[in-house]
From TrEMBL:
Protein name: ABC transporter permease
Source organism: Pontibacter populi
Location of the protein in the cell: Cell membrane
Sequence ranges assigned to domain ABC3 transporter permease C-terminal in this UniProt record: 294-411, 680-792
Lineage of producing organism: Bacteria, Pseudomonadati, Bacteroidota, Cytophagia, Cytophagales
UniProt cross-references to Pfam families, sorted A to Z: FtsX (PF02687), MacB_PCD (PF12704)
Keyword Transmembrane: yes
Stretches that traverse the bilayer: 21-43, 288-310, 335-362, 382-406, 680-702, 729-748, 760-779
InterPro entries reported for this sequence: ABC3_permease_C, MacB_PCD, Macrolide_Exporter_MacB
Keywords: Cell membrane, Membrane, Transmembrane, Transmembrane helix
Length: 800
């Protein structure tokens, strides 16, 4: 029986080629979007789920309740002190120090010359206990015991092939940042993409232990501590123990009330942007994941609505077929099954096409979202189950209403072809479906326009400093004694206008917090501050505005301080002038001096974050970045001169530079990706919506063929008939607009709350979306309306 149903379905689809193509195309687009979004969601939810202790691994994170600032950093002495105290009850404790990028030199051997490489990916300095906490494949060798010693390293297969192509890597030596000679003890597979530890090298923590601070006054987001909780230890009790422990050991080195430790589950790290770490992957909120799921469902729903409209538009042409079948003895149930089989066949064809489209689109999606999703249909049982369930649901949802309508025709009425609109199931439902489609379209268009507006706001908002025509070059580790000669040589070329050395640029992902003492107080302040070490030329190069005082002098051994206006307010000083002459000491009081200047606030990170208090002072040993203001009309000459001087001063290091405005733009890569996705989804939703509208207009044209003929005989013009068909749909689009506006307003207001600095939701984006949708709808309707209006009235009025 089912064989007959499917053969009949195939004949019907072949007979109505245009109808079949439109339906398959619409459903294929919707199903493709749903598959791609399912793959993204599946990937995002899989982060670090492969560790056997994943449900018991926690990261110790720090919050500053008074400033509402959070960091994944932990104090440097914390892990060692915790391990020596068994009363805390942790099963394992390990600390990780991350490094983003490194200079790697391969020493010369025999007559061969040495090689140098720049590794820009993440590098992890780990303890032996790291292997007890996490389950990464570190190769065939048991390396745990070796990581209790300094100067050992594990390379990923990609780096091993890059450094020593075709050679046995184990036992080789590489030089790290011209400081450490590291022995390769193993080669590991590349880290999976779905981990928060995307390291390309694992170096023993002992290598750098002596260079790290030993006091409790410093925090750095690239230094993190992880613990494994015993199954019976409650998280709340563990947090209480840690905070009491820190208070006891840190004593007066950290603010008494301004800091709070908590335990963040490993499974929460990827979804919590409040504790974004220096070496972790870019976080994605659970809300955004749910939003992607909803978008996938909505696009699939739009495709199903399109199918229903097209199917019901074709129903009147099949009225006689239904009548004949009923006269020959077909029951309503048999007709319903017949039409559901047709729908299933269309859905299967669309699914097959969508699998091909997914295979083609996935590389572009991976590039856009910076993911490593693989598509293996028959190896992914969850994906197969998803496709099976989706096929059944789409068939039932898209096919049930047309099947119900078609099977409800009375034989005599059907054979006479006198089906009325009301008999056909009621125009009101189709009106509702069209309104739903265009509501979805307009919500997506409004969101796209507003996201784009926010992105333009990011690009154009003043950051409190001048980022234009600035190149940043990362310095090797030891640079202090070379600063002045290097500066003079760089400035010898007129293409280089200004040079400054600093720990980092004004806006960067490198955030260093620390405690400080104000005005010779015996106790440190009750809040911590950003620290930047910068030379005196830093302020003029970035055009920073002084509200009071001036930059500190160059070459003086005495330390002076410059603060921002937020720091001035946090200190309780009424005016910038009141800050001049006040005394500040950083951390262990090694850097102390009077305030000589107050600069206007500038953004130290993304506009999603508030401006924090900051102290700037000199420290040549901490300078890690050269900032060069160049003449953009001599850009090529400037870069050539920079590289030439670099090769002379640092012959063993790779010259690597970035434009500052490009670095700042990286803060908003996620938002830019969301913007691109919104644009793509909006176009797909509009296209599918137009197919549905096309189907509804086709239905109306078929229903009103004789009416059009009579109107033409009575003198109606093509324009009059086009307006006749269009006015009803204009109403539907306007109703959709009224519904879409509050929905889009709510969603975008929710999204914008994540940004401290954001646009206001004006009316322009909403009106533009309404006008755009109405224009697209009118163009779609006019094609069918004009076709109906141009039909010869003699043909229209012929008797059946």
């Amino acid at each position: 029986m089912f064989k007959i149903y499917f053969l009949t379905a195939i004949r019907s689809l072949v007979r109505n080629k245009s109808y079949s193509i439109l339906n398959i195309a619409g459903l294929a687009l919707g199903i493709t979007c749903s598959i791609l979004l399912f793959l993204v969601i599946q990937y995002q939810l899989s982060y670090d789920g492969f560790h056997t202790k994943a449900d018991r691994i926690y990261r110790l994170v720090v919050s500053f309740p008074e400033t509402n600032f959070n960091t994944p950093a932990s104090h440097f002495p914390l892990a060692a002190n915790m391990r020596s105290n068994s009363n805390l009850g942790f099963e394992e404790v390990t600390q990780i120090k991350g490094d983003v990028g490194a200079q790697i030199n391969i020493p010369a051997k025999g007559t061969a010359t040495g090689k140098k490489f720049l590794v820009e990916e993440n590098i992890g300095f780990i303890e032996p206990s790291f292997f007890n906490v996490f389950n990464f494949n570190t190769g065939a060798v048991d390396v745990k015991s070796q990581f209790s010693e300094p100067n050992v390293v594990i390379l990923t297969q990609t780096l091993a092939d890059k450094f020593f192509p075709g050679e046995n890597v184990v036992g080789k030596v590489i030089r790290y940042n011209n400081q450490y000679n590291l022995k390769v003890v193993s080669v590991m597979p590349d880290m999976p993409g779905n981990t928060e530890f995307p390291f390309v090298m694992l170096v023993s923590y002992e290598t750098i232990r002596k260079t790290l601070p030993t006091d409790w006054g410093n925090l750095s987001s690239d230094h993190q501590t992880f613990v494994v909780l015993p199954e019976k230890l409650p998280v709340a009790a563990a947090e209480t123990n840690v905070n009491q422990f820190v208070r006891k050991h840190a004593q007066s080195e950290i603010p008494e009330k301004g800091i709070l430790y908590s335990l963040q589950p490993l499974e929460d790290i990827h979804y919590n942007p409040n504790f974004y770490g220096a070496f972790a992957q870019t976080p994605i909120t659970k809300e955004l994941i749910w939003a992607m799921a909803i978008v996938g469902i909505v696009l699939l729903l739009t495709a199903c609505i399109n199918f229903i409209n097209l199917a019901t538009a074709q129903a009147i042409r099949r009225a006689k077929e239904v009548g004949v079948r009923k006269v020959m003895g077909s029951s309503r149930t048999q007709l319903v099954v017949q039409f559901l089989c047709e729908t299933l066949l269309i859905v299967l064809c669309a699914t097959f096409l969508s699998v091909i489209l997914t295979e083609l689109a996935l590389p572009y999606l991976n590039t856009l979202l910076d993911l490593q999703i693989t598509f293996s249909l028959f190896d992914d049982k969850v994906l197969l189950l998803f496709l099976l369930v989706q096929t059944i649901l789409v068939t039932l949802f898209a096919g049930f209403y047309p099947a119900f309508v078609l099977s409800s025709f009375q034989p005599i009425t059907a054979l006479r072809s006198r089906m009325s609109v009301q008999r056909f199931g009621g125009i009101s439902l189709r009106q509702v479906l069209v309104v739903m489609q265009f509501t979805i379209c307009q919500v997506l268009i409004i969101c796209t326009l507003l996201v784009n507006e926010q992105m333009n706001f990011f690009r154009n908002k003043s950051l409190g400093f001048n980022k234009e025509a600035v190149i940043t070059v990362f310095l090797p580790q030891s640079t202090g004694d070379k600063i002045q000669p290097l500066r003079q040589e760089l400035l010898s070329n007129p293409a280089i206008r200004e040079i400054s050395f600093a720990s980092d640029a004004p806006s960067s992902g490198n955030i260093s917090y620390g405690n400080f003492f104000y005005n010779h107080a015996a106790k440190d302040a009750d809040f911590q501050t950003h620290k930047k070490f910068v030379d005196p030329y830093y302020f003029s190069l970035f055009d920073m505005k002084f509200l009071a005082g001036k930059a500190y002098p160059n070459g003086d051994s005495i330390h002076y301080m410059v603060i921002n206006d937020t720091m001035r307010r946090k200190l309780g000083l009424k005016t910038p002038e009141d800050a001049i002459g006040k005394h500040l000491s950083l951390g262990d009081r090694r850097f102390a001096g009077s305030i000589v200047g107050v600069v206007a606030d500038f953004h130290q990170a993304s506009l999603a974050s508030p401006i924090e208090p900051i102290i700037m002072t000199k420290n040549p040993e901490a300078y890690s970045v050269i900032s060069a203001k160049i003449d953009m009309t001599q850009q090529k000459e400037a870069l050539q001169h920079l590289e030439k001087v670099w090769e002379k001063v640092y012959p063993d290091d790779v010259f690597n530079y970035k434009y500052l405005d490009e670095s700042i733009a990286e803060f908003y890569e996620d938002e830019a990706r969301q913007n691109t996705l919104f644009k793509v989804f909006s176009l797909i939703a509009i296209f599918i919506g137009c197919l549905g509208l096309y189907g509804l207009v086709a239905f109306m044209a078929a229903q009103r063929t004789k009416e059009v003929g009579i109107r033409k005989v009575l003198g109606a013009s093509v324009f009059n008939i086009t307006v006749l068909f269009s006015k009803e749909f204009i109403k539907l689009v306007l109703i959709a607009f009224v519904i879409a506006v509050p929905i889009a307003y709510y969603l975008m207001n929710l999204w914008l709350q994540d940004f401290t600095y954001r646009i206001s939701l004006g009316y322009s984006a909403f009106l533009l979306a309404g006008v755009a949708t109405l224009t697209i709808a009118l163009l779609t309707m006019s094609t069918q309306a004009i076709k109906a209006a141009l039909t010869n009235p003699v043909i229209s009025l012929k008797s059946e």
